[in-house]
# Entry
Amino acid sequence: MFKSKKLMDLSALEDGESTAVVANIKGEPRSLIVVRQGQSAFVYLNTCPHIGAPLDFEPGRFLNLEKDLIQCAMHGALFTIESGNCVAGPCLGKHLTPVPIQITKESIYLA
Ligand code: FES
# Structure
C-alpha cells in the first residue's frame, strides 16, 4: 500500500472522461485536471500555460468534443492527454504542469 495521499478512486471516473479535484500540492490547495484512459490516468495542474487561467469549460469538463485532447476554455489551446504538450493555440510549444501520481487497480494516489 502506498503512503501517498489518495486522490480518487478510478471507478469514480468513467473511462475517457475528465474531472477536477482539489488537492494539497506543496502545502497549497490546487485544482487538478484528471483524465482517465483505461487503467491509466493523467493529472495536471488546472492552470493554462498561456495566461494561467483554469482550463475547464464547466467544473470538471476539460476535453474537446472528440475527447482526445484537453482543451482550454479561455482561448481554445489544445493539449495531448498523455503528455500535456500544447499542440494548437496561443501556448503552442508549452505544456501543462504534470502532477506525479501512482495508480493501483482501484485508486489514484499523489506520488
Ligand atoms: S488561457 Fe488557455 S489558451 Fe489562453
Q: What stands out?
A: The chain has a mean pLDDT of 95. DSSP finds no helices and nine strands in the chain. The radius of gyration is 13 Å.
